[in-house]
Every structure is written in C-alpha cells, then in structure tokens.
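Notes continue from the previous slide.

Worked example: a multi-chain complex. Inputs as given:
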Amino acid sequence: MVEIRGLTLVYPGATQPSVRDVSLVVQRGEFLTLLGPSGCGKTSTLRSVAGLETPRAGTIAIAGQTVFDAGGGRMVPTHARDIAMVFQSYAVWPHMSVAQNVAFPLEVAGRPATEVARRVREALERVDLSELAQRSATALSGGQQQRVAIARALVRDAAVMLLDEPLSNLDAKLREQMRVELRQLLKSVGMTAIYVTHDQEEALMLSDRIALMDQGRIVEAGSPRTLYLSPRTTFGATFLGAAEVIAVEGTRPDGRLDTALGPLHAAATDGPAPARLAIRPESIVLHPPRGAAAPNRIAARVVSAVFCGRHQQVQLECAGGRRLTAIADAHRAFAAGDPVDVELPQQRLIPLHEEPR
Amino acid sequence: MTTQRRVPLLSPALLALLVYLVAVPLALLLVASFKPSGLPLDEGWGVGHYLTVYGDPGFWKLLGNTLQFAIGCAVGALALGGGLAWLVERTDLPFKGASRVMIALPMVVPPFLLAMGWVLLASPRTGFLNQIARDAFGLASAPLNVYSMGGMVFVEVLALVPSVYLILSAAFRNMDPALEEAALASGARWPQMVRRIFVPLLAPALLAAAAYLTIVGFLVFDVPGTLGMPVGIFVVSSRIVYLATDQSGGTSAYGQIAAIAVTFLVLLLALAWAYRRLTARASRFVTVTGKGWRPRQLALGAFKPVAVALVLVYFLLAVVAPLGLLLWTSFTPFLAPVSLSMVERMSLAQHVAVWSNPRVGVAAWNSLWVSVVAATVVVAIAFAVAWTVLRTRQPARRTIDVLAFMPLAIPGTMIGMALVYVYLTLSFVPVYGTAWILVIAYVTVYLSFTSRTANATLIQIHPELEEAARTSGAPAATTVRRIVLPLMLPALAGAWVWVVAHVMRELSTALLLQGEDNATLAVQLWSYWAGGEPTKAAAVGVWLVVAMTVVTVLWQWLSNRSHRTVHG
C-alpha cells in the first residue's frame, strides 16, 4: 500500500540528514510501527509520506501512485495524497464542534451534505462520541479529543492512516485503554496504518510489524515477537526491552564462545560466530551456590536486591567483576553479599552480529 | 517544525510592498539629505546640509533636549509605572480591580488633550492651579509652569504610565513564584533572594521596557508640540513639524530637515535593534507554564493607605483634573477661571458652534474613514507578514520581518516628511494633499504593532492544526480560510480596533501631511487650539475622548475574547 525507496531527508541548515536511505514496504491492512528514540527520524519519515516535508532523495508511492520522486521532480501536495493523519497534539480545531471537525475532510472533498451527515454519524459512532457531536471541541477531555482526531482521520477512508505519537499526551491509564481500542478499531475497518512512537510497549502491543530506527536509519524490522525474542543487533536488543550484552572474544574448538564471563554455550548459528551475546534479565536463572559446576553457570555474589512487587530486580557481581541484572521471583529472599550461581540458559542467549554502520 | 509551503507569488509581492512602504521613503529621505536643493531627484550631491545642521549650535541643543526628554520620560515612566505594577501584582493592595482600571484608563486620553488639560491647569498666566496658589498664598508669580522641560516630562510620564504598567504587570505575573521559593528554600534571606533571583529574572523585561520607552520618548510629538513648541523648547519631532509647517522656510529647509531626520533615525534604529535583542532575551526568561499560580505577595502593612493614595493621585493627575477642566472649558464661552459666577454662563454653545462648522464634519468623516481603511489594510498586511515569517521557509522572510519591525523606531513625523518627498517625486501618483496619503502613512506607522500582534497570535496556533487540515485534503487557501483566519480573527480584530483608536488620535503625521481638505479631527482640534480658540478645541476634545472610550472598550472586549479562544 505504501512503498518508500531510498528516502533521505535533510532539513535546511542541518549538517546531518534526519532520514538516511530508508526503504520500507507496508502491505494492505498492515499495522506498521516506526519505533526509535527521539531524533531517530521516525517522525520525519512519516511526515515525508504525508508530504509535510520535502525529502532530498528517494521515492514514495501510496496505493500504486507515486506521490514523491526526487529524481523525477514529482511532489504531490499533501492535500492531494490519499492519506489521513492523526497528530500528537490531537490538532482538533477549537473553533469547530466535534461534528464540524469530523465533517471537514468530506466538505473539502466536495461530498454532498446528506452523505457528509451520514458518514460523520457513522464515524462518531465508531469512536463512541455520538452524544458529543454538537459539543465544542475544546470542551472535551484529552481522550475524547483524541477520538475526534481518529474519527476525522477514519472518515476520509484513505489508503493509509498516519499516526504521529497519538497517545503520548494521554495519561498512563487512558493510554493503555486507548492502545487496545485503537488496534481493534483499525483492524475492524482493515485500515493500513503507519504508527510512530518511542514507547516500546506500545509498539509491541499494537503492531503487526515494527521497524526500529536509529540515527535516521532502519536498524531492523520484524514482527514484535521476532524483534523482542531474537533481535539481530545490539541496538535492537537494548532499545526494545532490557538486555545484558556480553562481548564474544573468540571460539573454542568445542564450539563454546569465550567471554568475560568464561566460556558459554550458545545456540548454534549457521554463519560466523556472533560478535556479542545478549540475554534478557528475566531469562537469567539464579541457583543456590554449588561452585558453578554445570554448563553456562557462573559463580556470583548479590550486590543488591530491589523488591518491585511482582518480581525483584537483583544486581549481581560475577567472579570476573562483571555486573549483571537479573529478574527473580518476588518470594525468594536475597541479601547483599549472598553467593549465588548464575545460569545463562543456552537457548536464551541471543547471538548478535556486528551491525553495519 | 515549519514546513515548506508553495506560495510562490505571495512573498515577493509582500516584500515589494514593504520595501515600497518602509524602505523607499527612508531611502528618499537619505538621498534628499545629500541634495543641495533638498529634493531627491534634483541635480548634484553634497554634505552641505549636514555641515549646516551640525555647525548650528541649535542642533546640539536640540539633540540635548531630545535626549533629556526621552531619558526623563523613560526613567519617570519606569519608576511610576513599574511601581504601580508592582503594587498591584505583588503586594496586598486593596481594591485591585478598581486600581487596574484607574491605571489603564488614561490610555483613552489622547496625549495632546492631556497636555492641553495641563495647560489649563498649570500655565503660568491662566492656569487653574496657579490661580488657586496665587489667591490662597498671595504669591506674586505663578509657582507652576507647564511650558517647560519639566512640565513636558511630567505630562508625558503621566501618558506613558499605562503602557509601562501593562508591560511590567505581565512580567510580574509571569514570574513563577517557585523560582523565588526555591531561593528561599536554598537558604537565601529575603534581601539575597531579591538581589540574586528577583532582580536578575526581571532585568531583561525592565531593560526592554526602558529601551522601548526611550524610543517612544524620541518619537512622540503631542506633548512636546503642545507644551514646548510655543515657548521654543524643541525636541526632534516638534522641530520637524515646526520647520515643515513654517511657510517662511520654503523648500530650502527640506534638506536640513532630512539631515536632522537621518541623524536621529540612525540613533533610533540602533535603539530599536537593542530593544529587539532585549525582548528576545526577555521572552527566554519568561517561564510560562500555563499552570495557575498566585504570585508571592508582600504585605504592605502601614503603607497600605499610602499605596492607595498613590493610585488615586495618579488617576486624579492623569484623568480627572485635566479632562475635568477640559470638559468645563468646553461649556464656557471663553477661557476664564473656574468660579461660581461662570456656572451661570455655562452652555452648549461651543459644542453647537463646533458641530455646525462644516470643516469639523469633514474632519470627523476623514478621521473615521482614514482610520477604518488604514486599519483594515495594515491588519491584512500584518497577517501576510506573520504567515510568511512563521509558516514558510521563504528566503525573504527575515527581510520581511525586519522591514515590518522597523517602523517601531521611525517617528510619525519622519514618515510624514518622507512621504512628502515620495509623492512630490512620484507626482504621477495623485495622493499628495489628499486623505489617501494619510492612509499610506498610517499603514506604515502601525505596521510594527500589528505585525507583532499577528506574530504573537500565530505563534500560539499549533502548526499541527494547519497540517491536520492539509492531511484532511484541504489545499493551502482553504486551510487559511477555514482554519487559520477564524482562529486569528479575534486577535486581528483587536489589533484593528487598536489601530482605529490610534489613527483617530494621531496628530503629528496628520499635521505634516495636511493639505486642502484632508484634515482629521485631531488636526481640526489643533488648529482651534493654535488659533486661540481653546474653548472650541475643548469641545472637539470631549467628543474625541467619547469616541476613544467607545473604541477602547471594544478593544478590551475583543482582546479578552481572543485570549479565551486561543487558550480555550
């Protein structure tokens, strides 16, 4: 539905490009999330698709129509693109009622009044705002304004909906509730969506596919499950969830990998040995001290244990001085100085390869 | 993030218009100052006018007077206006609502009327206060003389206080008390907190206000024209009016006027540049977080009555006494001391006489349509300026911004003079001597205020509101018409009314560009006054104040509404 090729965007006066050679294909009905830290180029990419920024290089096609082509000098203006957009600030027009806000895209498209009224009614029903249709837009709560913005985008029936951190201005509880609703809503109408966020949990819960961005590039892309359970890059492993990253110093004849924690068994990989290994804190297992006799076990000492309610976070210092953080069951008692055996289970060690820079 | 918008024609056209309105007049003024004949298109070049002007001790006296007046006004207005703002915003002064009104109300009084009121109060010969003093204490000579540098500064300070009050009370209000509380919580004593936190935080706003007031002190004509000109105490604006309207000088004086004007313009533009830098810094310091807070208030204790008295005395001096005497005078047949015997002779005769004079009717009509047309045009241009500067990446936008800001530092008298050159030179544009030249002048004079208002409003409108319209399928023109204009309308309407009010009371430009039948109400009033008919002048003045009050109330109402809409 959306095809981006070799997109590069440089803001006037900037020395570094904000988007570097980004290519991306979004399938019909797919919910794709651009995830990354602030300044990674995710919003710039989205705004380029909307035609709100003029990239320096690349092409963008929406529903088969090329809307931007730097080489061919083609730049379809925003209003002529088959898109709808939801903004971070809601951008609900304060001088119009809820219904007028939602009717606007249809009015400027020149739809007849009866059709406008019907479609506005339907869109407001979808977002559960029917009773507030005549309310002034400014008299609504943040969550309600967000629904107006979503209804206004839905009503256009565009090929793709672009969402720029639409939930980040809501409070935590509402955000969680809207997350579920938003995904259900977009899926129920089969909408293709590109969603921008810096919130990893949001990205994991909402998306069919996540494209992880850093410094203007897509670092890796994949389904939430793949990206979380088996990232290929250090950035992927550490940005999406917490991870302990262990450098690999060499390979032993028996296939074990040499690390600062000693030789470790890792799941076999086809290609060359990984540059690093990563492990999620919740995958680290803590055993009573037995001198670390079994494979992938390391003798360690508890530095501190922080009780978090549903689990506890244990800081460990391994024999070589390396520190690790593990997530342990809340019922176990740990005291600073306690000796423990740390197990890094073979199947949970994620091989990371050098990322191209 | 601003975005590239494709409006290829708007920005060059706007640039051309601003160059025509602001740069061309100034350029012709500059050229004229180097022409022996004093006319921009004539033969020859020379620095003769500068030599004449700088060689004349009168010029250095003029410069000294102007500096003395401007700095005196700035210091006085800052002290009085700042003090009143502090009392209202940061102490437990009682009757705050009434105090705010009493301090802001003098804005509706045109400064030349305030000056005339003070002539009636404190002129050495007939002044009401002087008569009382003479009768009460048997003094041989008048104790007060308003026709003096001291008198000019005093009256101008009274006129400037409302503006200072408005600027500084906003600064006081916007200071987050948490900053002061943090200092106290860090162990600072009150005096240390005031010295190390309060004053440094306020300093940019104070300096900006001081620079602004000094500029205004250079620009104003009303008070020095009314109080200084008759006794030969000149500042630059009154000198220009004097030289330009003094028929005996002929055209030969034009070159000298141009040389004087250019000299002062250089000074003023330097001040304006400083002001721009200072306001940019001041806005960095202002910590508007949008959360409601109550500023820390100092208990006045025993000084409460003194503070209340200060507000009352200001209101008495700036409004009640001068306007009261003006009103009284408008009902009397001739200028006479206030006394019981005169009460019997009071009548509406002057008001009737004034309104049956056809010239007054024409002047009132001129004031009305010139102000309405000029306000409409200048607000439209200001909108285009704000849009171009804030919402496009047009390369010309910085130049446009500066050109629109510059008139802040150009006295109305100089714009008037410059326009004389422009339309004597471009004689094929038949506006010289008509009311249209006033429209052009006022559009230039009020460009700075209106474009800054439009800027301030547009900056508060989140760009995403426009982007949402464009991603909804609306082209640029529809976006402006349906989203941007409706959102800015209350503020633009407020600016429009402000310009109408200021054009209606403007005197110096209208005097300079006076022709056969383009006199405004202010000019008509001035000619009654200068022509020795103060009672008729007073009658016109009363009606002018009535009109100004109506317009100002409208302005207040509109600016309150615009505040609500934008921050809704």
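Summary box: The CA atoms of residues 121 and 127 of chain B lie 4 Å apart. The two ends of chain B are 23 Å apart (CA to CA).
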